[in-house]
Each structure stands twice: as structure tokens, then as C-alpha cells.
Design a protein that fits this description.
about 800 residues, alpha+beta, 4 domains, 18-stranded antiparallel β-sheet, four-stranded antiparallel β-sheet, 49 strands, about 15% helix, disordered N terminus
Length: about 800
Amino acid sequence: MQLRFPSLVLRSLALLSLVLVIGGCLPEIQDNPAAEEWIPAQTTALIKIHDAERFRSDFRNNSLILSYRKASENFRIMDLVEEVLNLEIENGALLAILPEDSTRTAAQHWLLIMPESASPVAPDSTGLHRKQEKGFVRISPVEALVNGQRIAPEQRPLLQRSLQTANPRASATLLLPEAGEHPLKDLLLTPISKLPVQLGELPLQNQINWSAFDLDLRSDALLVQGVQIRPDSLWDQRKLLRGIPVLPLQESFRLMPENARAMFSYSLQEPQVFLSNQEQWLARGNAYPALVESSESLSLLESGTKSLTVLGSLNPDVVLETFRPFSSALEDFQGIQLYALTANEVLTEAFEPLLNTVPELPYMAQLDSYFVFSEDLEALRDLISAYSRKSTFGYSERFDQLEEFITSESSALAIALEPGSSRYLTDSANILALPAALQSPLPDSYLYTAQLNSSLTRDLLEYQFRKKASPSGSGTGTRMVFNQKLEGTILAGPFFLKNHLTGRLDIAVQDDQHQLYLYSDTGKLFWKKSLSGPIQGKIGQVDLFKNGRWQMAFTTPGNLWILDRNGRNVAPFPREFPGGNLGPLAVFDYEGNQNYRLVFSQGSKIHMYDGQGKVVRGFKYTDAGSSVLGAPQHFRVGTRDYLVFRLESGRLEIRNRVGDTRVSVKDRFDFSGNGVYYYRDAFAFTEKNGTLVTITPRGKIGRNPFSLAGDHGMFATAKTLALVNENQLRVKGNTTDLDLGVYTGPVIFYLYDIIYVALTDIQSQRLYLFRSDASGVSGFPVEANGIPDMADTDGDRNPELVVRYRDSAFALYRLQR
């Protein structure tokens, strides 16, 4: 499931209703009523962050933003955002951006306003100043901004109005005072010091209009949609369309050649309104009003290096009559009469200034209710031939893929299939022009679309950059790279392991004949090795010799193993343990200095070895008095280490490095089959009755009865909790219903600031992948029969999943982001 903004038309109706309600009065903002009170007086741009986690991950993984960041060394909004996103930001935060001055740089000139319940940012560790007041916390590197002059109450109402138009389903909304040149340019390229109007520079009585643009930053797409306030005093070409009803302008693309660079279309559904707007613009009347009155739409085409104009007509006879004195029959081409024109100014003057920069168009032809004007006779013939064969862009598969992202009706519509070579795209006469500074850094693999829905006082705009090969913005989806059959049924794994020779990841997997296999991430078998029994839990990795060469570490029921990358035993391993019954291995590296502790259980006994295979004599907790459930766990909280052991007797032991009790837990628990996690500053786990238990580092116990089924699944990270209960997935409070099935517990992966939640229906053998908002990732489910491992095996920022595939094989899937 992908985030989809409401259509431009539907949103326009909602916003027009809002304008009617608030036109005569300016109510208090409904979302965070006091947040905007703290905005500094000199604010030049605002960002409302609706979903901090998604905004952070989407912003940092958007390929277009990465391209534009390389295009200029100026310090821009997106550069500042990149720095601020390093902080812990809560949903609903406001980021105020201010211009640099003589005492500080733009990188320092910002203020973050968050609800007081937000996670604290320690000033002593970040160099930031922080103040809490009236339920909000204000954070900035500049103390004067935390305590400085705020915007006056008289200037808040229009800001509140714009904040109300923000779409909370977007990850963030960009707000700009007054109308800048182009919101994309202000976001991506304009130096902060050159952004438009700063509030403090205007008289207090002058209320400032704010424009709000919702941001949707997918990996291969950048979408901006919002409301731009246009002051009555500001005249530009958009005002020519004010008050003119919208049309399904994409119908004109049936005349657009497949090799065309771009097409720009305008609604003329109320010709008298256009004539009135035009008269105000030109300060004179139209010399050819009958031509305008018989027209419904006007489109400009760039086909190769040639220009064409398409006039959609309500009364073709009037158009022919208008051009009769200035035309002569030229030839018949495929049953269509071609005309030569002697007065090019007729068309240009009738629709001035929209065609002012278009070259002379001396050729004309009628195609049904459309009239096509061309600067080149051969280009006109090519268009007629393609239209007759229904071989134009409007009939193509490319258009079908793109059409779902185009609003059904609009005042103006632009599509640039080759934006880098389009002349008219950056022309000042173009109502939906793209600033030239944005054109050159745009990769050739992208197309550009823009739509306008114009009312009397404001414009609803949508700008989109999308990959030509994948307009959805989610890449080409998910594909299987390979699957590999083993000699026996899979028993353990597959697991990703670091390969120090290539810098990539290898795949380890064991079958029921106790053979351990190591494959490359392309499916090449390096080796296989017979072991004494099944691998317990997961395979860990260690660098025992501290030379950057990795070994794999694990237990089987009777042995502790260390193997090098070639599958050879590393002395003095394997270590044998009489009586067997070893539990899964946990590898602890307390200080990150490769002084490893290898910890595992043998019934109620607990063993701790160092990297040389010697018993760690200083560790006191060697007998738990009850069998240990699962692998021991290590958590580092601040400067303290916590070793956690779940016991069959229902006790939870939380110890320090030497095995002494660190947190005394007197209660006993009926542990579910899930592990213990450190979630929101507490050790968290569930019981079989579905209760979520939390224990703080000081020993305070909390219980949250979730009423989960006994076979529920749980996984957590520091800030994310995922639960699977029967046929429902819950992630960070977001829920989604699953198909009927038998599901594994969820597993959370965190890659490139994106949270992925994976789970498998072992009944239908389908693997699902979700985002942190519980929305499904494109391309899933895929066929699988186990719990996956996930990583970026080759460093290309397109993650891979390796998972059991049927009984005796594993598969590698790649997410093309």
C-alpha cells in the first residue's frame, strides 16, 4: 500500500469549502493550537513534520534529493533539514528556518518547536539550547532564537489558515511566506539567505500570506502538492486562467507523438472569462474574439526540435472561417487536408501572451475537433500519421502507467518526457514553467508533470518528478535474484554473513543432514562442511585476531564452534561439552574492541568463554537453577551493561558483566515464545496471556494487558513495537488486517533510515513486508517458508532478503528502491 494524496480536484473542493468558512473570520488553528506562537519573527520558511520517522527515511533515501544536493554548494533548506534530522524529532514538530546574518551561519539559524512530551535533547551533548514553556519545547543552536522575538499575533491568522490545509498523511509540509518563484526551487536550490519575504521586514499591520506544499518523497519520485496564495497585486500568466472551469486536459495527449519531448495544455472552457482576464493583462481587447470563443483548450507540443500547437474547438466551422482569409490548401495527406498559413500572428494574438515565444506556425490541419498548427510540414505529417494509427503517446503503455498519477481535470497540465531538452519547459510564457536552475541537474531518467487548479485567490498546484521506467516511484518492485536447492531440508538459516574479502555479504545455511553451506550473494557455492549436529539459534561473527577478517561463531548441541571464512576450524575450537544440550550462542562485545564473550547455556548451567576459548573466571553467574530459555541477551544502556536471562521457572535475571544482580526482579512470569527487548527505556516482553510487561533499569514493573492470543508474535526496537495477533499486524500503533493464515512472529529490520517489518504465513508460504505505518511494501508478498534475514548485500541501497524457499531451497529477493 502506497501513500496517495487526495486528487487535486477533490482536494480543491475541500479547500474551497474551508476558504468559504474562514474567509470572514480567522479561527485558532486546530492542530497544536499554540505551536505557531513560538515561530521567530524573521522566519523565512517553515516545515511541519507530520511523520518524523518516515520523513527522515524518505528524505535521506530520495535519489532526486541526492542529485540536487550535489548540484550546488549553497546552503539550502534541504541541507539544513539533513542536519536537523539527526535529532530525535516527534511527530507534529515545526521547524522554523531563518536567514543567516553577520553573527551566525544559516546552518545555525533554525528553531525546532515540539510538544513538551517529546524525547529530550540534552543541550550538553549536542551544543543546543532548549527551553520548555506552555506545553512545548523549543530547541536551537542559537540561544537568542529560543528566547527571541516571535511573530506578532496579528500575523498568525493566515499562517494558521495554511497549516489547516496541510495534509497529515504527507510526511511533511513546506510553508513559504508569500509566493516564491517555485516551491521546488526554494526547497532544492535557493540559498536560505535568498528566500522570499521575512516576516520581521514587513509592517505589523500587513498580514502575510503563506503557501503550504505537502511533500511526498519516494525513493524514485518527488511529489509536491499544495496551495499557493497569489496576492491580487501579483500578475502572472496564471491569472489568465482564473475563474475558468477545469477540463480533462489529458485527452489532448492523443495527439502527442510518442517521441515528443513535452506537451503543455490549458483549459479555455469559459472563453469569455479568458477574454476578460486577457484584457486586464494586455490593457486592450482581443482582435480575434470569435476564434477564442470557439475554443475549449490550447496545447503546445515539442516534437523533436519542432513546435506544434493544438487547438481544441467547440465550433470547428468558426475556426476554419477565421483562418480562411489567411490560408490556402496545400495537399491532401492520408485523407486530411493540409493548409499553408500566411498570417501567423492570428493565432499568437488571439491567445497572447501564451504563444509569444512559439516560433511561426505556417501549417495547419484539422483532426476531428482539433486544429494542429506546425512550424514544419514533415512534423505535421508525422503527427497525422501517428494519430490515424492510434500510435501517439496518449494511446501508449507509458501513458497508461502515468495516467493514474494525473488528476482527471485541471486548469493547466504539463508533461515533459524529456525535461532536460525541452525549450518551452523553462520559458517564462509557460504557466507551469520549471525554473531553469532545476532543469540541468535533473537526471535523464526522470520525467516531469505539473498541474494547476486555479481559483480567484489561490492556486492548487501539484509538481511531480517520476522515473520514466517506474512512474510509481517505488522502483521496479521486488524480484527474485536466484533460488538454490540443497541436498537436504533446510534446518537453520539462511543467514547473511560479512565477507571481508569482497565487502559484500555471503549466505550461510544448514540442512537436516547437518551440512553447513556458504554461498555468495549471487548463488555461488564456496564450500559445505559436515557438523556434529544442528546449529542452535543464529550464527554470529567475530574478528578474533583483530585484523578485519571475520569468523563465524555458533553452537550445536554438543559443541562451541568457530570457523574461518573457508570453513576451517579455528583452534582451539570446536570445544566439546559432555552431555550436550547446549543452547543458542550469544556474542557480547562490551566495548566494541573485539574482546569477545561467548555466552550460552547448558540446561541450567551458563558458560562464558573468551575469544581464545578460555573460561572467563570472573563471571559468577554460572548456574541459573533452572533451564535458560533461548539465547542470553546483552543490552547497553548509557554506560551500563545488562545481561538478561529468561528462565524456565518464570524468573527474569538481569545481571552485570561479572554476573552480579543488576536489577532485582522478584515477580515470576509466564513467558511467551518471544524474546526480551529494550523498548522505550525499559526491558519489554510478553506473557502467554498477551500482557506486555516492562521493567525499567531501576526495577519498576509495568503491565499492559493487550489481550493477545497465546501464539502471538512480538518484536521491538528502541522505539518501535510490532505485534502479530491472529490475523492482525500492529506496528507503532498502526494496524493492518492480514489474510487468514498461520504467521511467524514479526522481525524488524532497519536499513537506510527505513523500518521494515517482515513476517511469513507458513500455511500459504508467503512472505510479507511492511513499513512502520503498517503499509505493505510494493512487490510483496513473495513465496517463502521461513523467517528472513535482510541486508544490503552489495551496497547499492537496494536491500536484499534471504529466506527459506520451499523445504530444501532458499531464495534471495531484491527490493528495487
